Automatic annotation (TrEMBL):
PANTHER family: DYNEIN AXONEMAL HEAVY CHAIN 12, MALE FERTILITY FACTOR KL5. Residues 1-175 form the Dynein heavy chain tail domain. This is Dynein heavy chain tail domain-containing protein. GO terms for molecular function: dynein intermediate chain binding; dynein light intermediate chain binding.
Length: 176
């Protein structure tokens, strides 16, 4: 009986390890941990689940590092149709949403065991979150400094006018 139980434990450890090989997101890792959590009564399986919990936090830490590196890069890619300031703020907010979503899965996973790496990761997340918020505030401040104060007067001007050269056509009345 003992050897059969040992064999079952080894098979379950292999199953858990093989399922985590396909993990690519924090959400998947948390879902896998949730599935196998009820098996953690056995000490060997509990150790395996603890190792996989560390792997999930490492994956989240890598994602945070990627976002931090992307934030600190001087050049960012903005689509040609995006306005300069709004495009930068949109880009920063998309980075924020990316890490917020992963963080939300970790916070909702109340069954996860507390580990030291988890606390460090949470601090890194809060620091990065604050940096992203400060970046968006800075972009807004830069935009308010550069915005034209007489923009309301421009709204009173018609967008299209009659063409003075060719009487049958309309011309665009935009500032260039």
């Amino acid at each position: 009986f003992r050897s059969a139980i040992k064999d079952l434990e080894v098979m379950m450890q292999n199953l858990i390890s093989s399922s985590f090989e396909t993990m690519t997101t924090v959400q998947q890792g948390v879902e896998f941990l949730d599935v196998y959590q009820h098996l953690s009564n056995r000490e060997t399986i509990k150790r395996t689940i603890d190792k996989k919990t560390v792997e999930v936090y490492i994956l989240f830490n890598e994602e945070l590092s990627w976002v931090n590196k992307d934030l600190n890069r001087k050049a960012m890619y903005l689509a040609p149709q995006m306005p300069h300031f709004a495009g930068q703020a949109h880009w920063a907010r998309s980075l924020r949403r990316r890490i917020d979503r992963s963080m939300q899965f970790l916070v909702q996973a109340t069954f996860l065991t507390k580990i030291g790496l988890g606390d460090e990761t949470m601090e890194f997340f809060q620091t990065l979150e604050q940096s992203l918020d400060d970046f968006v505030r800075k972009i807004f401040t830069d935009w308010t400094v550069n915005v034209d104060r007489d923009s309301i007067k421009r709204l009173e001007r018609p967008l299209m006018i009659r063409n003075l050269d060719d009487k049958g056509k309309l011309s665009v009345n935009f500032d260039m």
